[in-house]
Amino acid sequence: MKHFALFLAAAFSVTFAKDLAPNKTHAVLNISYTNFDDVPQKNKTLTFVGESKPKNKIVVKTNGYGEVSFLIPREDSYTILCESLTGAFECGKTPYVSLKASYGSVNVAFDDTRAELHGVSFKAGSAELLPSSLSTLDKTIAGLKKNAKAKVEIEGHTSSEGGEEFNQKLSEDRANSVRDYMIQKGISKDRVTAVGYGFSRPKASNDTEDGRRQNRRIEVRVTNPDEVNVSAE
To answer: PROSITE patterns recorded for this chain (predicted)?
Structure first.
């Protein structure tokens, strides 16, 4: 029996679906979904989109224990989308599911009250949004409109290039650019705040170009999760 290993959030487990079996074209994938405090995320939606075959889209929902098992087509790798108050966000990728794969298990960890807005970028050294950013922002805005009670904080983060004072202001200006765009698109200004953290909260080392690229980011955080139903539906 062949197994394909899926590594997300540095976690790997071996649990198998009791009521499913692989067939000629599909393998069995078992998912355990928690937040970053290891609390099971029950009744949450996950979407798997084939990278080479985008039409291979599978939407599943976890049970009361934050688990779900399903059949997944072989010969592709998948982007995993997790739902949040502000829309669906990429929360992982699967490696290639080979033709010989039978079973795989993975732990997905995601905080649905916080997300990095992948794809949001700016002109170098400025707070001017690039046109390529707008699709991600529009998706976030659509999620906010569906969840009318949600309030969010837009967080700007930078790399360490350019010094502390420059990056602090740049992070604030970029967060405000995102806030302004959301307001222009119909989100009430009292629902969106903006804050800049400069390079004080890096997610990777600033010693490499890849690390600096990861640190230049915009994140969105729901500030009143207890007042709303955390769902994109």
So the answer is: OMPA_2
Spatial neighbors of 98 by CB under 8 A, at least 6 apart, are: 2, 4, 74, 75
User: pLDDT per residue over 120-162, tens digit each?
Assistant: 999 999 999 999 999 999 989 998 998 889 999 999 999 999 9
| 6-29 tens-digit pLDDT | 433 323 333 445 678 999 999 999
Whether the full predicted model's pTM is greater than 0.70, yes or no, is no
Starting at the edge strand found earlier in the chain, the sheet holding 192-196 runs 114-116, 217-222, 152-157, 192-196
φ, ψ of residue 137 in degrees (nearest 5): -65, -40
Give the separation between CA 24 and CA 102, rounded to whole angstroms.
10
Instruction: List domains and CATH numbers for the chain.
Output: 26-109 (2.60.40.1120), 114-227 (3.30.1330.60)
Single out the residue of 139, 133, 89 nearest to residue 113, CA to CA.
89
